[in-house]
Every structure is written in structure tokens, then in C-alpha cells.
């Protein structure tokens, strides 16, 4: 292909960036970077009723967080701007007029009340919803009269009433639509704003878009767009409709809908990029995961870098079969990426999550603790649960948490007292702590776990915590002993009550 590749992501600022939208942006971005082409961000803000003010900031921040920087668009500018459709109304007016002049569109003066009547009538007669084309056949004098009276109007597409409209999708080949099933859709609304159908065709043409990659929900609009291109005698870009993204059950489209988790909890699916960011997913993991939704790097290799994806991405390899959004797989991938981070980097990325949990720490504070948790973290948001007791005092655990299974309070008390004595005089390094505590377990006739569990609970406040010896070492002798002393008091009381 000699022509320069120019692709666009064209979100409507009607909500935060959905992972489905992010996947669309990602595929466009990959194709631009693979070919040395241009990635354009165009804001389709012509539906003023559905406009959500902070959605634009969210969309741009989420794209940038994923590393999907645009070459032309808001902020970046470019030779084909403006990149907000609301600032391009004159183009849509001009081509709406052009379509009327070419006999491919017409003005419609029907009032909302009449349209409602038509809808009701069609429903009653079991016809598909749609417009009855009343104004398409208005006598000229009637049209002139309505114009002279300044009657508000919309512009509608004049869809052929018979035959088929055949379109071509790169992955699906030719798709034929019966014109009888298509509607004379509105192109320009009475408020002077275009609908999606007109704006998308005009802008893709004027912005010299070479490939349109978009969600497959737009396939049904495709023939309408083709009719507009043909009426204006414009060459069409290559169209690639991306496969649908299904929820983990594989039964429905990915949505916020509540679902039951394996642990029985019912919660909403995360679907917004910002939710994944807040939940502690790494952008490189989400990038990798989204790239696998409808495209495969190779047969087996699921983990690949941005550079590898850019090098390998080919449109022909995009699949048409729906892709299942597996939260489990994403969590696994996130763990893989967390383990691959340099410790300094992981420490740096954990800081905001610690702060959010009310823990004031720096990356330098965290760095020595990284080896304790790097293997265990599934998300950055897991950080505080594993590390909080290093940075804030703990509530003294109760006896039922301190006493391990198959032990009682007196025996636990005895074991923890002995451990305290050992920890008070052992040389303070991980190896020595481990060796002496293991030896002590033997001396007391306890399994290692029976001794370690009360020490862990006493010093961290948790049953599940990072590896014990490193934890004790980094906690420091003084704090470890102080916490053990508090636990001993609790156990003493419990032991008295049990006698
Ligand atoms: N504004 C449309 C959307 O948000 C764009 C569809 C397209 O890419 O043509 O889905």
C-alpha cells in the first residue's frame, strides 16, 4: 500500500474510557506505529444531551496512561483540525447541502409529534421502527412553502428503496444489506449538529483516514456510511470491524452488570480503564492483555512487550470471533509484570497506593521491603495489606487469632515467651533468626508452623503476611519485642481463663 496510514480513535465524551474503547484505540495505535503512520484522536462531541464534562479528561488521561499517545488531536493539534466535531459544523453543513444537491438526501419537516405517531402506528402494524419517508415525496410547492415559513427541518439520507448495498470489511469480506431494511436516517439535526453517520464520513474523508478500525456494533451502520461515500464520490477507507468483547461467562457483552465471584461475593465488573488503574493494574499489563483480545502475538506466547506487538501487528491477524475478557487472566498477567519490575520501580509505583491507604512512605522506605512482597503482589493495591504494619502500629491481636490450630493458650504462651527470649539475644539477621527459631521449635517439640504462627500474628497482626524472618528483621528487634510483649499479655489472660 503506497498510501500513508492514517488511523483514528474517535470516542464520544459521554463517559469514562471503557476497556472496549481502549482496545479499539490500542489496535489503531498499533497499526499506526507498525506502519510508521499517524494516530489521530478525534472527539465526537455532537450529541450534546449525552455530554459528560469530565469524560474528555478521563479519556485522554487513560489513553496516555496506557501509552497510546496521539500524533494529531486535542493538545497535539495537526493539519486536519479542529479535532472536536463540535468545532467543525460548517463542514457538515456543506456536505449535507451537497448530498441534497446530488439527490442523495432531503430535508424533512416532520414534527416530533408526527414522528411519535408514525412510530406508534408502525409498532401497531408490526413494522420495524423507522421513518415513513413522508417528506421524501413532498411536492415541490409544499417544500417551498415550508421553507418560506422557516419551518425547522432535519436532513435525511435518501436510501435506495430496492436492491442491496454491498460493503467490504477487510476481515469479513463482502457484506450485503437489503436496502429495504435500511432507514432514511437523520444526517443533520434541527439544532444544526450532525449525527454520527454524517460526521464520521465527512471527517474520515477530510482527515484522510486510510483505515477505519472500530467496534463491530457499527457494522449495521456501515451500509449507510457507504451510501454517503458513494453519493459524494469519495474513495472509502479500508474498514476493519473489531471483534466483540464478551464477559467472562462468554455469554454476553462485557458490561458493568453484577456477577457472582467464585468466593460467592456479588460485585460489579470493572469496565473503565480508570478502575483498573485504581485497582493497581500496571498499564503495561493492561496493554498486553487488551492486545490479546482479538489478536494473538503468536500461538503460545501471551506475554509480549509493546515493541514486540508493534513489530508483529498485522490487520489480517485480527480475528472476528468474539474475545472473552478474563479477569483472572488479566490478574495473572499483572502478577507477571509486577515480578518483572525492577525493585526500585515497584517501590516507586507502590507509593501512591500506600498513601491512599493512609500510609505516609517514600519509595526509599519501601525499597528494602520489596523482596518480601514482589512475588506475592497481584496488584499494586495489594501493597498496603502486606506492608502496612511496617509503617503503623498494629492493634494487639486477640487470643483466638494468636493461638494456632491444635494448640491452646497456655502452650502458645509458653512458646511465644521462649521465642521472645531467643529474639531478645539472637544476632539480628535473617539467617540467624531463622536458624534459632527453627532450633527452638525442635526444643519445644512443636512443628515449625505452630511456633511461627503466633510470632507472625503477634508482630504483624495478620495470619497471612510476608515471609517471617525477613519481616522480623525489617521490623527491627525493638518493635518486634514490643509487639510480642503485648501479645504475651493477651495470652496470659486467656491462659488464666482457660484453666
Ligand atoms: N464516536 C463513535 C464511538 O464512540 C465512533 C465510532 C467510530 O469509530 O466510527 O463509538
Task: Describe what this molecule looks like in 3D.
The protein is mainly alpha-helical and 499 residues long. Among the domains are: 155 residues, HUPs (Rossmann fold, 3-Layer(aba) Sandwich); 100 residues, Arc Repressor Mutant, subunit A. The protein is built from 21 helices and 13 strands. α1 packs across α10, α6 packs across α7 and α19 crosses α21. The protein is elongated. It starts with 5 loop residues before the first strand and ends with a helix. The mean pLDDT is 95.
The CATH superfamily of the domain at 88-242 is known as HUPs
Distance between the termini: 87 Å
Give the strand order, joined by hyphens, for the main sheet.
3-4-7
Q: Helix tally?
A: 21
**Oligomeric state of this protein:** single chain
Distinct small-molecule ligands in the complex: glutamic acid
Instruction: Give me the count of strands.
Output: 13
- What is the radius of gyration? 32 Å
Mean pLDDT metric: 95
CATH architecture of the domain at 88-242: 3-Layer(aba) Sandwich
- Helix-residue proportion: 40-55%
Shape: elongated
User: Would you state the CATH class of the domain at 88-242?
Assistant: Alpha Beta
Tell me the β content: 5-15%
Amino acid at each position: 500500500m503506497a498510501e500513508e496510514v492514517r488511523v483514528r480513535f474517535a470516542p464520544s465524551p459521554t463517559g469514562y474510557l471503557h476497556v472496549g474503547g481502549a482496545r479499539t484505540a490500542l489496535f489503531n495505535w498499533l497499526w499506526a506505529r507498525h506502519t510508521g503512520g499517524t494516530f489521530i484522536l478525534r472527539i465526537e462531541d455532537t450529541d450534546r444531551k449525552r455530554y459528560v464534562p469530565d469524560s474528555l479528561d478521563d479519556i485522554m488521561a487513560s489513553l496516555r496512561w496506557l501509552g497510546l499517545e496521539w500524533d494529531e488531536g486535542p493538545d497535539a493539534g495537526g493539519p486536519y483540525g479542529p479535532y472536536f466535531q463540535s468545532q467543525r459544523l460548517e463542514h457538515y453543513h456543506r456536505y449535507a447541502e451537497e448530498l441534497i444537491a446530488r439527490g442523495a438526501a432531503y430535508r424533512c419537516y416532520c414534527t416530533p409529534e408526527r414522528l411519535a405517531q408514525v412510530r406508534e402506528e408502525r409498532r401497531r402494524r408490526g413494522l420495524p421502527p423507522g421513518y415513513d419517508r413522508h417528506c421524501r415525496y413532498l411536492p415541490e410547492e409544499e417544500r417551498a412553502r415550508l421553507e418560506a415559513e422557516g419551518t425547522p427541518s432535519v436532513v435525511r439520507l435518501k436510501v435506495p428503496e430496492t436492491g442491496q448495498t454491498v460493503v467490504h470489511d477487510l476481515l469479513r469480506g463482502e457484506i450485503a444489506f437489503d436496502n429495504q431494511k435500511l432507514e432514511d436516517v437523520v444526517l443533520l439535526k434541527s439544532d444544526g449538529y450532525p449525527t454520527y453517520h454524517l460526521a464520521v464520513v465527512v471527517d474520515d474523508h477530510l482527515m484522510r483516514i486510510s483505515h477505519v478500525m472500530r467496534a463491530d456494533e457499527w457494522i449495521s451502520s456501515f451500509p449507510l456510511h457507504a451510501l454517503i461515500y458513494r453519493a459524494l464520490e469519495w474513495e472509502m477507507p479500508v474498514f476493519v470491524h473489531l471483534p466483540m468483547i464478551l464477559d467472562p461467562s462468554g455469554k454476553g457483552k462485557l458490561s458493568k452488570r453484577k456477577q457472582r465471584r467464585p468466593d460467592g461475593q456479588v460485585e460489579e465488573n470493572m469496565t473503565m480503564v480508570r478502575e483498573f488503574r485504581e485497582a493497581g493494574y500496571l498499564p503495561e499489563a493492561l496493554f498486553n492483555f487488551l492486545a490479546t483480545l482479538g489478536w494473538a502475538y503468536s500461538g503460545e506466547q501471551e506475554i509480549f512487550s509493546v515493541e514486540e506487538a508493534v513489530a508483529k501487528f498485522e490487520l489480517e491477524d485480527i480475528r472476528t470471533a468474539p474475545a472473552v475478557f478474563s479477569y483472572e487472566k488479566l490478574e495473572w498477567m499483572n502478577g507477571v509484570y509486577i515480578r518483572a519490575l525492577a525493585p526500585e520501580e515497584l517501590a516507586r509505583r507502590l507509593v501512591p497506593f500506600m498513601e491512599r491507604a493512609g500510609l505516609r512512605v517514600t519509595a526509599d522506605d519501601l525499597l528494602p521491603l520489596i523482596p518480601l512482597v514482589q512475588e506475592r503482589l497481584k496488584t499494586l493495591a495489594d501493597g498496603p495489606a502486606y506492608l502496612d504494619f511496617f509503617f503503623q502500629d498494629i492493634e494487639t491481636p486477640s487470643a483466638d487469632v494468636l493461638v494456632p490450630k491444635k494448640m491452646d493458650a497456655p502452650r502458645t504462651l509458653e512458646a511465644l515467651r521462649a521465642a521472645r527470649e531467643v529474639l531478645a539475644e539472637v544476632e539480628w539477621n535473617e539467617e540467624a533468626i531463622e536458624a534459632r527459631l527453627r532450633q527452638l521449635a525442635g526444643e519445644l517439640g512443636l512443628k515449625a508452623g505452630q511456633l511461627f504462627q503466633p510470632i507472625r500474628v503477634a508482630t504483624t497482626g495478620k495470619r497471612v503476611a510476608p515471609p517471617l524472618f525477613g519481616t522480623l528483621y525489617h521490623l527491627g528487634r525493638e518493635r518486634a519485642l514490643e509487639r510480642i510483649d503485648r501479645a504475651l499479655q493477651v495470652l496470659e489472660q486467656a491462659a488464666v481463663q482457660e484453666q
